[in-house]
Design goal:
Layout: H1 2-6, H2 8-25, E1 28-44, E2 50-67, E3 72-83, E4 93-103, E5 106-116, E6 126-137, E7 140-150, E8 167-177, E9 183-193, E10 212-223, E11 228-237, E12 245-254, E13 263-272, E14 289-298, E15 304-315, E16 321-332
Antiparallel strand pairs: 1-2, 1-16, 2-3, 3-4, 4-5, 5-6, 6-7, 7-8, 8-9, 9-10, 10-11, 11-12, 12-13, 13-14, 14-15, 15-16
Length: about 325
């Protein structure tokens, strides 16, 4: 105690210097995920022929985060994928990179960034776009986005027929209300503009030759006791003639995360129109389909997550049977 008192000033200065060193040492942090995914999709066509397709994918994801200052960070994701059934290898590529400024009740992102339909929990889109997003508010939040999105990332319902510029101009806005951990409600509007829509399947059946998409979506959820949660989402593209609406309702119990022993299960009904759900978040194949999805997740070890999902239903185009099975194992580091 006497020595500590005598050298208190020196110890304090040493502590400050060590803290500063730790701060700069942690300026760039790396996390990652190795994931194995398997898909098996079966579909019956209008002529009663059947098609089956299996896919095995191994994917490495690296997430660097760099601190710029107290409020700003740079975030990115580097991804490489491999088709295990064909024993192929893939090169690392930059999936996204953006600068994020985070202040009290104000957030801004600029660059290639996450593109997600928060209102209906990924019913419309789950991808990345190039541009800017600004969000303000606390319990009531308003967000505005603008930029460009590559239509080559969309589902098969959008056929571009464009040689060079396959990116659509994009503007969007979201308004959400989240007063507590239990209740959430929101509405969103998204506008896309591209000549690609003139040639999309079922888009201009009445000869309008629309070159735009105007998508409205709403969503709500309620968590009864932090174990049982119900959610509903609806979206419609007012510019398309066919396959212009999507909706989903789900009930989930608990939820698996990276902690050993955690698990969760869910059941959902999906109705997914290609011309409004451009790239929905669902792992099973729901493009232009309606039906029931069942899922189960479990973490057998720390930083390990397993998942299995099954979808059965009908094609919106042919009204024939469809099935989709998905399995995943992820290791986080």
């Amino acid at each position: 105690d006497r020595l500590a008192a005598e050298f208190s000033e020196e110890l304090n200065n040493l502590g400050v210097r060590v803290s500063e060193l730790e701060k700069y040492a942690d300026k760039v942090k790396w996390t990652g995920e190795l994931r194995y995914r398997y898909w098996s999709n079966r579909e019956e066509f209008a002529d009663r022929s059947k098609h089956k397709e299996n896919t095995d994918q191994l994917q490495l994801r690296l997430f660097p985060t760099a601190e710029v200052n107290k409020h700003w960070k740079v975030k990115a994701r580097i991804t490489a994928s491999s088709d295990m059934s064909k024993d192929t290898t893939g090169n690392l590529r930059l999936t996204y990179a953006f600068a994020e400024g985070d202040y009290k009740n104000f957030n801004v992102k600029v660059g290639k960034q996450v593109f997600y339909d928060n209102v209906s929990d990924g019913l419309v889109i789950d991808d990345f776009f190039s541009g800017a997003r600004v969000e303000v508010g606390s319990k009531v939040k308003f967000a505005a986005e603008a930029g460009r999105w590559n239509l080559n990332d969309a589902n098969d319902g959008i056929t571009t027929f464009l040689d060079d510029d396959t990116a659509a101009n994009y503007q969007g806005a979201e308004l959400t209300y989240n007063p507590n951990d239990k209740f959430y409600i929101g509405a969103a509007y998204r506008h896309f503009n591209s000549d690609a829509f003139k040639y999309a399947d079922g888009y201009n059946r009445h000869g309008k030759l629309e070159d735009k998409a105007n998508i409205w979506s709403v969503g709500t959820s309620y968590d009864f006791d932090k174990n049982v949660k119900i959610a509903f989402g609806y979206a419609r593209n007012s510019s398309a003639d066919d396959y212009e609406k999507s909706w989903t309702g789900s009930i989930s119990y608990k939820g698996a995360n990276k902690k050993q022993g955690s698990w969760g299960a869910w059941a959902a009904y999906r109705y997914v129109g290609n011309n409004v759900s451009f790239m929905p978040t669902y792992d099973v194949d729901t493009y232009n389909k309606k039906g029931v999805e069942l899922g189960l997740g479990w973490s057998p070890l720390n930083n390990t997550l397993t998942q299995i999902q099954y979808f059965t239903g009908k094609s919106l185009e042919t009204d024939k049977d469809v099935e989709s099975l998905f399995a995943r194992v992820s290791w986080f580091f």
